[in-house]
């Protein structure tokens, strides 16, 4: 059974509140979970200690048992320490190809550039003929 430490959304519309839970990876986001180990309230200021509350010892135990934290939860757990060590490691993702346009968009841009170059060449040709006469 694959375990995840992830966020489960609660709260009403436009007022999010999340629980940090340990759940089976196949379970729905807000569905069945094994244990609740903390909370996250994104509406509270970032520097407030009440924004993220996590039981670090439980999180460390679940990670030792093989539970994988999601990217957002790993970011939270990297700031929490147990025995002087962070509970989880988080590194900033790097995907330089994400910003590149797809194949079709690149083809369209190339066609537009060719048409613009042809128009510029056509505009210069009559101007040169007028100066020669």
TrEMBL record:
Entries under Pfam families matching the protein: Ribosomal_S16
GO cellular component terms listed in the entry, alphabetical order: cytoplasm; small ribosomal subunit
UniProt region (Disordered), positions on chain: 86-133
Matches recorded under PANTHER family: 30S RIBOSOMAL PROTEIN S16 (PTHR12919), SMALL RIBOSOMAL SUBUNIT PROTEIN BS16M (PTHR12919:SF20)
Keyword terms: Ribonucleoprotein, Ribosomal protein
The keyword Ribonucleoprotein is annotated on this UniProt entry: yes
Name of the coding gene: rpsP
Keyword set includes Ribosomal protein: yes
GO BP terms in the entry: translation
InterPro entries the record matches: Ribosomal_bS16, Ribosomal_bS16_dom_sf
Composition skew (Basic and acidic residues), residue ranges: 97-117
Protein family per UniProt: Belongs to the bacterial ribosomal protein bS16 family.
Example GO molecular function: structural constituent of ribosome
Stated name of the protein: Small ribosomal subunit protein bS16
